[in-house]
Amino acid sequence: MFSYLCFALVFVAACSAQVQVSNDQPDARNAICKRRNGYYKIDSSCDAYVECTEFVAQQLVCPDGLHFNPYAQWPAYPCGYPQDVPCIGRGAAQPAQPTGDCPHQYGYFVSPAASDENCGQYRLCVAGKAIDRFCPTGLAFNADLGRCDWPDRVASCNADKFLGFSCPAAPTDADGKPLDIVINYKHQGNCYYFFSCEKGRARLLSCDAGLAFDPASGRCIDADLVNCDVLTSVLH
């Protein structure tokens, strides 16, 4: 769903693409068109590019917050989010066009309501308008990647507080060294979720449809075989 949403919103951005016409002579601009239709990068910019249509070139720039993808194949939309299209070896992007709620016209950003205990909320900006969103259950928003991630990978997130769970100390071998194994623990209040611990890192996971977590075996089994007496917990 997250990936589908990204695609849909980039499509919306395509309808808002800005045009910048080069001051060069038409013959000079059109000389870049080696193919009838195609895109060409501008080395001095992250978001500007040249589009050739019927061997006629025009210089365009992606909407604020998006980068030009030099690997885009015409006629696919050539602009994408920075996390998907890193700007490496090129110049800077256009100046930001912030609004009261968004630092850029398009992009994924940390929500003003987020905290180290509320790490799953983020802000999506579309044409300068903010849309508040939540990551899937058990995931936190990673601002460095612009997407949802495991809480222990998000520096600003207190994973233990966010998940409401801390991994017990791992079993040790004969020499007292922690064993490199994965151990699953039940979720208090919802038997369809469980915590998976590896090297002290907790991950909140869920059983497939029709299954429930069995604390005795530490795995998901037929839900009819699990006594789910407490199913009132609401997860966000």
Walkthrough of the structure:
Helix content is 10%, strand content 29%. The chain is mostly beta strands and 236 residues long. The chain has 3 domains: 2-80, no CATH class; 107-163, Antimicrobial Protein, Tachycitin, Chain A (Beta Complex); 165-236, Antimicrobial Protein, Tachycitin, Chain A (Beta Complex), CATH 2.170.140. A hairpin with a 6-residue loop joins strand 2 and strand 3. It starts with a helix and ends in a 14-residue tail after the last strand.
Mean pLDDT: 87
The outline comes out as elongated
Beta-strand content bin: 25-35%
Identify the strand order in the major beta sheet.
1-4-3-2
Distance between the termini: 16 Å
Overall number of strands:
16
Low-confidence stretches: 3-8, 17-24, 230-236
* Number of continuous helical runs: 3
Number of self-contained structural domains = 3
Integer-rounded radius of gyration: 24 Å
Structural class: mainly beta
Major sheet size, sense and barrel closure: 4 strands, antiparallel
What is the succession of H and E elements? HEHEEEEEEEEEEHEEEEE
- What is the share of helical residues? under 10%
Signal peptide: 1-17
GO molecular function: chitin binding
GO cellular component, one term: extracellular region
Protein name: Chitin-binding type-2 domain-containing protein
